[in-house]
Amino acid sequence: MLVYLLKRSLQMAVVVFGVITLVFFILRIASGDPARLMNPPGQQEEIVQLTRERLGTDRPLLVQFGDYLLGLARLDLGTSFHGGQPVLDEILRTLPNTAMLAIVTIVFSSTIALILGIGAALQADKLFDRIVLVYVSLALATPSFWLAIVLVLYFSVQLRWLPAIDLVGPQSFVLPVVTLAVALTPVLIRTVRQSFLEALGDDHVRAARARGIPEHRVILIHALKVTSLPLITLIGLQLGLILAGSYVVEYIFNWPGIGKLTLDAVAGRNFPMIQGGVLVAALAFVFVNFLVDLAYAALDPRIRLSAR
Amino acid sequence: MTELTVGDTPKEPKAEATASGGRTLRRLLKRRSFVVGAAGLVLIVMIAILAPVLAGHDPNEQDLFNSLVPPAWYANGVPEYLLGTDTLGRDVASRLMYGARNSLIIATCAVLLSAVLGTLAGLFAGFTGGWWDSVIMRLGDMQLAFPFILLAIIVLGVITDRTAVHLILVLGIPGWILYARVVRSRVLSERDKDYVRAAKALGASPLRQMRKYVLPSVWRVVLVIAMLDFGFVILVEATLSFLGFGLTPPTPSWGGMLADGRKNMIIAPWLSILPGLAIMVTVLAINLTADGAAEVLDPKLKKGMFRRLRRAAPPAAQTVAASASTPRVTPSANRDTTAQFLEVRDLQVEFPLEDRTVTAVRQVSFTLERGKTLGIVGESGSGKSVTASAIIQLIDPPGRVTRGSILLEGRDLASISNKEMAQLRGKTIGMIFQNPTSSLNPVISIGAQMVETIRQHHAVSAVEAKAMATRALMDVGIGDPQGVLTRYPFHLSGGMNQRVMIALAMIAQPDLLIADEPTTALDVTTQAQILEQLRDITQERQTALILITHDIALVREYADSVVVLYAGHVCESGPVADILYDPKHPYTQALIESVPRIDLEPGERLAAIPGELPSASDTLIGCPFAPRCRHAADVCVNIEPPLIAVGEARLAACHLNEPASGHPGALKEAVRRQDDPAAS
């Protein structure tokens, strides 16, 4: 277990370091000059140079990178190019909003996926199964940003039931979560349905029935426990989709989260803020996958956490 | 060891990689969803190609006098602008067509780029192996460990002048790993196949091998992944454009149009809705096409996708067209069977498939007394397991009992409700299975499974249930019951798991225990122990036992009476002692002769039964065993022999036993019997 934790942490560190390095250099090589962007067009070169010096972008790349890493070691993520507030503060302010959105989305989507997937498996090839199949096909083809707009048009503009933008209370979660769920559920439903069908055909399910275990227990305990394993793995794998989806959703619903923070920073070439956003995304990603491993080990006695 | 290694292979056409193009196309065209999707996709591609001809306006032509004109079906719409105009008075329909062009070109190029990169990387990794292989695959793992789309957003976001090339690179490069993984694994599996090794041994160069053996199997899978990836790439491209990271305006793109439309979504909702619909329809068409293609071109990849359940026909059972089923002569000796504990009468089990009906069990009858053991013997596919499933009413769908009755103490199990049956399972009828380890839930501890079962049948507390479980495990000869209770099935040997299964099945003291090949999956020494255990526990509790086996030697040892099944038919039934010493059916005789004996003379060969079980596609005329029978005559091929009495409590279905059947051997046999009355 200890060896596993060590190896796993090392792997995570490598991935995170790779990502932040990549982003650091891409930003500085591929992007336009933020100092010029921050000054009005036609500004005197001397003044632009002063801005560069203030931002620190005039120094050699490797010096900047070294500084950045030294800062990271002290948990200092730098300060925003615009306004000068510490990046860490901004992240800590917005992270809970994104985390809440993601957690509500995952819980909601898994519940829906379990209900629809198991229902479809139990009714395989019958009407309900067909309806779920149609939903899956349509949802897979639906662009999230478009769905968000359509939902806003209908539920906020036309019916005036739900807020169109901003986080103003629990009702604000409805449209963003539904938007994300429609992106997330098709893949989950497919997996639940397939693995549940396989589980229902398993020898042990038949044996459980043969020794008189009632059908609801066979389905809700024996088959479900086996089905939950692939579902958990898949949620870990889909986290990228959830994160990317939350960028879009936060952008549209003006949600005060990490996604909106990062997108705004991209638009303003706010390098430290972009780097902070990417770092958080990378950390979240490796952390959730680590949780998935732990959950897997807890649910499946056959898995012993070992260094892969 | 005594397994008859015959007739076990279902004859299904293999989905060979060499299927001709014409056949593949025909199979594709049979799928409605594929046809709809492909037709839609072709239409969209045509529109994109012909955009300059079809579009009524230049996509960037502004007409500020006609800004925000609604589509033609609105009251103030005009036919000139069929789908309306945007804020700058540009024609939405024309922009959508040109947008299709841009989306499709970018997505196609990106997918091609991923496919080429990934295929090359996969081929290279697979062929060179070793260090390069692990570097490439590690790189892929790293990449998969991070949501690449976030990086794409950032890269495109900070580039000042975005062109289609930037988009193609950013969308295309990350996809390589999808292809590389699959291609690499295909290369590895192809490389280990005998014919490729042989080619290598003969000096074929790696390049030649690749072209000749690997590429043909790889291109299909690459094509399928590319199709599945295509729709996703279009969605991502649209998302990037929507966020403002796509093609630099005013180049029309669906995502960009949507972003523009959003600014006026309240006064001009069509500007937001129409581009979204275009994206959705396109992606839907692509996905439908891809799903259909995946199922036909590469069924292995389809795992996890929706698909029609294809139920495997039970191998080697009789197929009868429903109308052509020949009524069999009712057994003339349907003996008086009042007060039997279990009586199966005239049982027929059918599996209705899409185009035909497979009859797995036909006219099977037998009886069993309390405390006795009945052996059911037959090869794989003879219908013995289906018979057992029918008794406990757990036949795999779509199979069902179509005729006959299963009377347990006078109650017909074939006609009682599911609810009533569920109450009998475990309580009155117990069952143990061929694969003990897979018959226990892999992720629930033995203890939890036992406690669950005990509390289902006895009103006891969890603590009492645990104590009962411990005793039950001791009763089946488990030395360390406490330890076993905390274990999971994968911790234990097959023999141990089978003991657990026996303990579980005996928990509610059932009156009938069905053991379906209980020792087939176990090694020989364990076999004997398990069977002894089974015999002891059933005798002690006066439980009737049905022992299903392919091994007639086991029946000799453990059963009181026996039913021999062949292709779903009863060949012969009666007391074990009589049948084993004087079989009345050539199949029974052949089974007995194929058992290895210790007294075999040196040089004497063990008899094997030539031929194999009739396959599921054969129609039933005559005796099912006739093709393999050494006594077969014309009558056997044409007329099915009825099951008739051939002695005290004995039935057999062979023309040899009917003097009037017209079988040339029958008369001789009758004479022989008369000469030797002891034989009957």
Strand content of chain B: 5-15%
Q: Low-confidence spans of chain B: pLDDT under 50, at least 5 residues?
A: 1-19, 302-338
Helix content of chain A: over 70%
Fourth CATH level, the homologous superfamily of the domain at 22-297 in chain B: MetI-like
Query: Biggest sheet of chain B, strands in spatial order?
Result: 7-8-9-4-10-11-13-12
* Chain pair sharing the greatest interface: A-B, 80 and 79 residues
Estimate the strand proportion of chain A.
Answer: under 5%
Mean pLDDT of chain A: 84
The CATH topology of the domain at 22-297 in chain B is given as MetI-like fold
Low-pLDDT windows of residues of chain A = none
Q: Give the N-to-C terminal Cα separation of chain B.
A: 31 Å
| Shape category of chain B | elongated
Main sheet record of chain A: none
Radius of gyration of chain A: 24 Å
Structural overview:
Chain A is 77% helix and 0% strand. Chain A is an all-alpha fold. In chain B, the strands form two sheets. Chain B has an eight-stranded mixed β-sheet, with helices on both faces. In chain B, strands 1-3-2-5-6 form a five-stranded antiparallel β-sheet, with helices on one face. Chain B is built from 24 helices and 13 strands. Chain B has helices at 21-29, 32-49, 51-54, 92-128, 130-144, 148-158, 164-172, 176-191, 194-201, 206-242, 254-263, 270-297, 384-391, 418-424, 446-457, 462-475, 481-486, 494-506, 524-540, 552-558, 576-581, 586-593, 634-638, 664-675, and strands at 318-319, 342-352, 357-368, 373-377, 400-408, 411-412, 429-432, 512-516, 544-549, 561-566, 569-575, 644-647, 650-652. In chain B, a hairpin with a 2-residue loop joins strand 10 (561-566) and strand 11 (569-575). Chain B is an alpha/beta fold. Classes of the chains: A mainly alpha (308), B alpha/beta (680).
